[in-house]
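If you are new to this repository, start here. Below is one unmodified record pulled from the training split, so you can see the exact layout before writing a loader.
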Amino acid sequence: MNKRCTLAAILVSTSTFCVFGADDSLGLNKPDPQAAGMNGKHLELIATRMKEYVDANKAAGMVTIVARHGRVASFEAVGFQNLEKKTPMQKDSLFRIASLTKPVTCAAIMVLVDEGRLSLVDPIQKFLPEYTGLKMKSCPARSGYACQSVAPSRAINVEDLMTHTSGLPAGGPRGSSEAQTLAELVTQGAKSELVFEPGTQWNYSNIGIDILGRIIEIVSHQSFEDFLRTRLFEPLRMHDTFFFVPADKQSRLATLYTYDGGKLVSAEAEWGAQHRAHIPMPAGGLVSTASDMLRFNEMMRRRGTLDGTRVLSPSAIHLMTISHTGDLPAGWVPGVGHGYGYEVVREPAGMFRYNSLGSYVKGGAYRTYEWVDPEKDLTGVFMMQLTNGGGDVADPINSFMAISAAAIER
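And here is the target side for that same chain:
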């Protein structure tokens, strides 16, 4: 605990006082709705509504943060980190953030683009020769057994991977789970067959994001894990974000549940699981806290800087947070297209949670969620650990986002 914390603060719950150090530029230790131009009374509905989901046994617990104009307006921990042990959820509880890892991986790619070390239009075979000559089925999946494989009209490039328009399948080929390193995993992915011409359709591809991580290793001459740590996490002071939870922090890891037969049952994690500790998974392996992910998304909202430190250029942020998929059906919620790692609200249908057009959002498999609304100058993070129950449009996420936006007064 920071030496500047008072003795009184030390004697009470660290989830309330001085958890985030003396240099708390975002106001995590003292949320200020007035400074954020928001109605504090309305923001109290967040904790009330979240507690209702916990009391109804729809969730074990959750952590929520909403910030506006760069100041935290609400920061709540509700329910339990572990239901069976009745361990209270804490503001610094750790969560397997699953696909919230993807914008982080894409941001790392953009660091290299900023430095002129790779281009978004580079074919991936430039870095991974084993991806030369990938084939594609010449007819739809259900059109019979005599379908021949053909070469696509162009190679997959880096941008295709970031927007899920590469034509690669969702995961690697059968047996890729036996890989012991990221290099092995990605090499096995080269045995995949494309499901469409690159750039012509949208198909969520975890192996595509994993390839990005391997490209980062090849270009930077660092491990993927070390590159994220030195180029993103340390500059942004994201001290609780990692692929493999250190032993002295494992007690803070929230239990993962599945909703089964009207009750919550503990579940085994695929993403961010300690038993997969040999591979830092670029598509979904990070573990983090709500406050660390707020710092990452505040950097995005501020066009690449946080606390005077620049990690990305404004040009990189712009490209990451606009839709590159045109009219293609893309994303997991209505009315969105796909940027680099994020989904982007591009139609009124995507505004059902009071998002503005141009908001960029991302959800994870275990009901983690983040969003930035540039028009409202609003940033939010939602953390829960549940394998099912509505996906990116889960009721607690919808409630949190709508209440947050409805609290804006000026």
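Two things worth knowing about this chain: The chain has two domains: 24-104+227-406, 119-217. Residues 302 and 366 are 27 Å apart (CA to CA).
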